[in-house]
Amino acid sequence: MVKRKAPPSYPDFPRSEYEWRIERARRVMEDSELEALMLTQNTHVYYATGIQSVGICRPDHPFPQPTVLITRENVVLARRANPETDVIGHETTWIDDFEYIRSETDIADVLKKYGVRRGDRIGTELGPGMRNGITPHNLEIIRRRAWDELSAQIVDGSTAI
Which domain holds residue 45? Predict the structure, then answer.
């Protein structure tokens, strides 16, 4: 984990807006009986964080989509980048906690590290009209690991999103 050391230089919105968006997400999570939101689609990641990033996928080397995990206590951005040179993450978003991953399936470890517990429901983009930023194969691996290791369910969170 890497902690923010200084405010971002180029955020698209003020910190007060970021904090309002996260608190609003937590209220909607509570109403939807979700303990966490896992946002993977570019538009949703940008809305929650302000990160200005474009994911690139090649058939021979898929580049994991930046993913935001919002829990009742934490907000973390999981992305594939070099922690020492992650200018985009640190300079465009108000996120304080960064996790750097090698693969989309490492998101299961991020869920465990940031307090997803037995029986928790994690909402993500699974409903009609939604597009998940994680490949279907890797999302299934994450779902299985969340269930096998945490007894947590990854469910449709589209009403909260």
Answer: 2-156
Instruction: Please state the domain count of the chain.
Output: 1
d(Cα 131, Cα 93) in Å, to the nearest integer? 22
Residue 26 lies in a domain: yes
pLDDT, tens digit only, all 161 positions of the chain: 888 889 999 999 999 999 999 999 999 999 999 999 999 998 899 999 998 765 555 555 555 678 999 999 999 999 887 777 778 888 999 999 999 998 889 999 999 999 899 999 999 999 998 988 888 999 999 999 999 999 999 999 999 99
The predicted model scores a pTM of: 0.89
**Which among 80, 76, 79, 52 has a CA at the least distance from the CA of 4?**
76
Is residue 128 a part of any domain in this protein? Answer: yes
In a domain, 161, yes or no: no
